[in-house]
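A common beginner's mistake is to predict each chain separately and then try to dock the pieces by hand. The better habit, illustrated here, is to supply every component at once so that their relative placement is modeled jointly.
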Amino acid sequence: MLSLIVFLPIIAGLIILAVPSSQKQIIRIVSLLAALAQGVLAVLIWRAYDPSLPGITAGPGGSPLGSFQFVEKVPWIGLKLGAMGSLNIEYFLGVDGISVTMVILTALISAIGVLSSWTIQKQVKGYFILYNLLASAMMGCFVALDFFLFYVFWELMLLPMYFLIGIWGGPNREYAAIKFFLYTLFGSVFMLLVMIGLYFSVIDPVTGNHTFSLVAMANQANYLQDAILGPHNVMWRYIAFAVLFVGFAIKVPMFPFHTWLPDAHVEAPTPISVILAGVLLKLGTYGMMRINFPLFPEVFHASMYVIGIFGAINIIYGAFCALAQQDLKKMVAYSSISHMGYVLLGLAAGNSEGMIGALYQMFNHGTITAMLFLLVGVIYDRAHTRQIDKFGGLASYMPVYAALVTVAWFASLGLPGLSGFISEALVFVGAFSSITTRYIAMVSVLGIVFGAAYLLWSLQRMFLGKRKPDAAYDLEVGADGHEHIHFHDWKGKIDLDGRELTMLVPLVVITIFLGIYPMPVLGMITSSVNKLVEVLTPLAIR
Amino acid sequence: MEHLVPIGLNHYLTISAFLLGFGLFAVMTRKNAIVVLMGVELILNAANINFIAFSKYNGGMGGIMFSLFVIVIAAAEAAIALAIVINIFKIFKSVDVSSIDSMKE
Amino acid sequence: MHSLIQLSIVVLLLPLLSFVILIFFNRRLPRRGDFVGVGILGTAFALSAYIFWTVIVQTYDPAFRVAWDFTWIDLGQVPGIGPLQIKMGIVIDNLTAIMLAMVTLISLLVHLYSTGYMAGDKNYGRYFAFLGIFTFSMLGIVLSDNLFSIYIFWELVGLSSYLLIGFFFEKDSAADAQKKAFLANRVGDIGMWLGILILYSQFHTFSFTEIYANLAAGKFALSNAWLTAAGLLLFMGCVGKSAQFPLHIWLPDAMEGPTPVSALIHAATMVAAGVYFVARIFVVLTPDALHVIAFIGAVTAFMAATIAITQNDIKRVLAYSTVSQLGYMVLGLGVGAYSAALFHLVTHAFFKACLFLGSGAIIHAMHHEQDMRWMGGLRKHMPWTFATFTLATLALAGLPLTSGFMSKDAILAGAIGFATAEGGGVYYLIPVLGFFSAMLTAFYMGRQIWLVFFGESRTHLKPVDNHHSDHHAHSTHDTHNDDHHAAHEVHEVSWNMRAPLVILAALSVFFVYSPNPLDGAQGWFMKMIQTPPTVVGSYQSAPSSEKLAVGSQQSATEGENSALSTQHSALSEQHSALTNERQAEIAHASHAAHFPAIYISSIMVLLGISLAGIVYVFKIIDPDKTAQAIRPLYLFSLNKWYWDEIYDATFIKGSIVISKMLSWFDTNIIDGIVNGVALTVKNIAFANNSFDKYVVDGLVNFTAFSVNTTGAVLRKLQTGKVQTYVVMLLAVVFGYFVFYFTRLIY
Amino acid sequence: MFELPSGAEIQSIIASLKLSVEFFIPEIYLSLLFMLLIVVDLVAKGKKNNLLSITTLLGLAGTMYFIFRQQSMPAGELFFGMYVLDEFAIFFKYFFVLSGILAVIITMADEQFESEVKSMGEYYALVVAMVIGMIMMASSADMMMIFLSMELVSFSAFILTGYFKRNPRSSEAALKYLVYGGVSSGLMVYGFSLIYGLTAETNLINISSALSQHGYDPVVLILATLLVLAGFGYKIGAVPFHFWAPDVYEGAPTPVTAYLSVASKAAGFALLMRFFYIAVPHGGPVYEDIIGINWVSLLIIISVASMIYGNVVALWQKNVKRLLAYSSIAHAGYLLLGIIVMDAFGTQATLLYLLSYFLMNFGAFYVVILIANKTGSENLEDYRGLGKKMPLAGAALTVFLISLVGLPPTFGFIGKLMIFSALLTKGSLYLWLALIGIMTSVISLYYYMLIPLNMYLRESPSSEQKNMNPGLLPNIIMAALMFLTIYFGLFFQPLADFAKYGSTLFGLKH
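With all components supplied together, the output reads:
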């Protein structure tokens, strides 16, 4: 089942490979079908998921089957290395509370991304092949339970992203693409070393061999005492933790490793921005929760404070930078930096409220930011500019659009009744309850105000008031005596058209529903996160 | 003749060392490709002298055999080298090694 | 589930229903579906009236309380804590019942009123939808039984106020005002949120009863400073929402919204929510916190009053008077006059709503003229409005026989009592400021009445040029292009706008609340709303023994009928034995101060009114001349103590500048570092690239020299030449050799 | 001074020779093929048909059979210890024959040969000769044999490099190669002579025992070792013995470049491993000072220098061939990492890395040739917009480059993975080496990605629509190579096992 959901897009990509590049519609439909099938599978997984199983580490008897769900475990590589024992790699998929929500999110966002890619006209075939490759890789990252497999998927994401930004991106795309590539690669290559180090430090209790299985690694009992990353090698464990953390933090992106994000977003086409903000950023924090923290619990416990501080910096720094932006998309990009800061803060809290909040924030940020970028794309398609000052008074002329923007904006600034609020609230509750991060939380609260500031300010400048003299559109009095606007060389509907609504409405509904009744998602993650917190809490405190 | 020191291993080695030096010197400094290649031959012959000397002083045929092979190889190398140099001369109308530097950083 | 709970849930959800219907379908319904809003609110009011009847009239019990909650978020088996849930719930006690009735009633009246006032607006339907969501959130605040849900609805009223202030969003002033309001509230809210977090982090619950029980049981692990901080931070929420100093700046600007909205949200209900919230958390406020609150209230009351006397916009005068009155309420809570403050909340809600709706009627009649300088002589044209407006004004000014008199007097009495109980000194500042503000209130209200209703119409005096200026209200209103000639034909407003005025005016008379016009304490209200015993007493320094006696006997009476007595009376009693003596003391002092307060306040009010008369009726003092005489003071007041300018110069400009700086930092420094690294790598590459060219040369020279060749040859050795390579090779071998040789020797 | 051997001795000598010959069949067979090719060339004089190339392909393919038969034979010495037959040798025999085959294939694809030379003449014969030489390099256990085989390889390489007689760059490359190669092999022989002087032995195994038994004069041994290392270093093209490589790789015909950069480098490594593993006495932990000179530290310096130098200088290259030349220098550094570990796992890692390098480098050069056929240029600028014109070639080249960077899911990643794993099995001792490797591979990403960047992200200045399709057969081969690169990146078990099989040397005492 998981294999299917992972490889469906690649299969679609292969099919597309066979389709002549002139048949654009067929290509689009094929990818859409794949994405929808993924969505269906995601729903099935959601329905069949048993929230009572915690996951994270091995279940009873060291077998992951007791603890993870939809597990697929086949030996992949088994090399004899003579003196070094053997190199065992498994094709090991499975989900627990932490990943299942991300799987659903990924399916949702990829489907929406396909819809939003409908307007891509340049090299459609290549675009969708890469897109599907990317979709598969993302999904794979979330379900892989073997570090090697995870790493393969992780790196597999880079190349498609590079081309998707680099070929279909904006004017400065070369710079943005290579920057993204180098940055993320820089983060991940060190992960490779840590991975190898962990491999030689961990013994699978069942087989007695070294193993890449994250499930085995998450159990400190499986570590060789004086292996390079064994409990005795404190220094190397700290270094390894830091290396992994930086690797993931670059993806998050965490200050000061965030500068690739604004460039990438500004240059990337709308669907790619959606994917990037909606799913890819989550991979960073997901990696922390799945790999970084449970494998080095004591180091995590020692560095909670630092992580929290970086989270706070992200929140406030991102908000301030967003406040200064003139380019709407750049503002949204910085807002994601700010919002991912909440995730970091929640993780740093190290208690259930905080971590549940962080995970839930990952999900909500996925949906909300996807919405934001889609909305930015809508106006960019029409006006071919994203300069906030080039608009004004749009609310009078594009009521539906304005309404959706208002919902999205308020969701982003954490208005109660919309999903973002609950996660942020939980994050703060957790961060404040933990003594380590209490004062950090008190500072981070300022982020709420500044978040509101830049969002409302942009809202006012673009939608309220009247048309600015140098606006990117003209006014003309229509037949019914009311004023209408028209954009230069835009033939389509002025207000949102059907396709855009089909992309946006589901997200709006999800945002509102999860804001009123979060349990459908929270119910799946609580047991796992509680287990994770248990794993992370050192025995001394436990 | 008893006041003459009997020729010992060191003499051979010294000679071979000198030969090596001359060979390297030629290779490094001479402009003419042919001379450069002769420098290479000198290097090889320096090795030959070593082999034979050693083989004389610690017995066994290995050194002598080796030197024979070296001589043969040297001959082959000379042939190839000449072919290449002639070709170079055809193209560049010169065999000045130092002037042939079209490919560089 | 208690039947009242079910009813209240229905009441809560009805306005939401109206919102949903109207926001989606208003264009498909006849009359844009305003009747839906009015009808639904009517039903809601009927139900809450029933609740009011059952709670207040039938079961005439101060300790009445029913509660119900359900698990909203289940966090499962949390390590170290055990099962953890976040609950949502509803509580109904006397206060709730009263607020419920009040909110629904005023909301209903405003709905009704708006059908006349907003008629013909192009977003007519949306307007009623927004009213719906506001009423929903307001009721949510009233009904909540825990801090979390209060916070949620707190933000939601903020949203609806945002939407309604900016209802005429084409006006930049309106857009600015709505943003300002939301942000100011946000500032208050983060304080409130932190306060909530402090309490949660100790007890892992949001519910009032559980938190109070834990506090009473002395389970609060942090220091008392934290507790005071928690109280003050929670109070910050009130500061934002109830426009207390220093966050009062948003409320006057909020008058950019439609006048009925000002009446509903920015006079009667939402701004009062802050006071309501402080009352809810009253028991966790430590004395230190209460002192701060009292002073803030006093300062707010005074400052707003001084500003109000010079404003010319009819709505702004009322706005500042609202701020001032809210200050009174906060002051009342601060000094421990709990029930008096809430009493003033209710009375103020009615007469201030009446005033706003009246002013709305005037503005409507004057075709959106808001400047009092160009009004005058309206009493002939609009008798109904005149009558109701005057009655409400008297109540606001606090003349005897009005509701306002009773409530304000009770607060002031409490203030005096507080001052005496605290041992005088600086604490007497509070009652003094209170009384002085009372005078100012009387003065500016008298001024307003005179300027608006008496004398001759001054419409013709108005300079024509600022007809379409931004200050000019509703400039985008569909029916605004007939201003000039319409100014003369002023006429009374239609019934659907008149009826609310009458009802509200009727509710501003004393007998609604108390048989005795001089003492509200004998009325049902003060009886039903009684000061709950504090739960933080055990965190105070132990009181001296003789006070203990009073305290215990006091708490004996209060312990039973406190809101807590349901499950935790034992706990609360046991420790309130040594805690509530302070409240008791204040209560006694207030009783003593009752009649002095009456005399002083009446005198003050009369002073104010007569001063207004002297200035505006008999023209003994020319206001303009006076203004010239005390120009600095006049400007200070006219420019609202320059708060806007100060904030603009400091916080707003400040954050913009910081953001610019950080953004520059981001693009130039942080990114610069990254690119710098890349550049250095490339430069290393360049160095390596020219490695052959320069370094090799050097080595070549050296080696060649060592093999004793001539300089002429040296110069010829260049890269791209095979000999250079050979030299390099030898150099390396030689270098290695020397290196290891030396390593062997030494 | 030497008395002649008696008849009996001669009998026994002949017997053992006859015995050895059975284990020498692939070499003999290849020599026959070599002569056959010359004859065929004489027969099919002047005519430019694929007769020669096909013959070569079939011949080389045939060799595989004999090599396969050798797998069942016991490992052991031949010809009085001149020559060994062990798994290590067999691995490299396969490797070299395969690279010979690929060299022929890409030669067939290169259209430059039509324009540059009249007849393919002895080209293929020389390719085969080189294969023989490299096979012998990998299997020789005696300094004399090493020298012979190395010279055989070198001479064929000289001629192949200068094969475009009328092309100045080609000839210049040949000359530089000749001189540099001559000198370094000369130095190597001199080093051999010194070692012979120290030990009176030419057989590696005996040398090691002699050294460890009788002791030695360290200074002389250092000198000798350095001189020998110079020879080997020149073969593997590692810094600081790399100076010939860029020019030669740029000047030589592209197929030859590919052949040299893969096969002859691999031969150098085979030699290096055998020499250092066998001849150097292994007492105690390998990474301690053994004989006064720390061999491993020497290799570490070389490998670090190669990784850094090769990668950073490549950043500035504008010519794809030259760029790949520098990348091959860098890869020499990575390969050395595996040798530094000095254990079976390290050897296995190195061999696996060689396999991956074989695949991806040949692939890259193949695509470069196909592109050069169409555009007639190897400059980076002329790659602009090729991604659209030659989709398959673009995709393939991208895959090969990604593999060269070492990103999953390609074979190159597995190579790096094994190398780094081997380093980390020594605990944190070599971690810093691994770090340098990682860093430099990140740098390498930049210049490798320059090529896809030009192919995809930039538009070609000239928009003429000439047919850029390289043709069916090349497309198939390209796709096959690409597929293999990815396939082995995911399922590298067989090859890794093969490398493990090849990692056992005769006479190596672990």
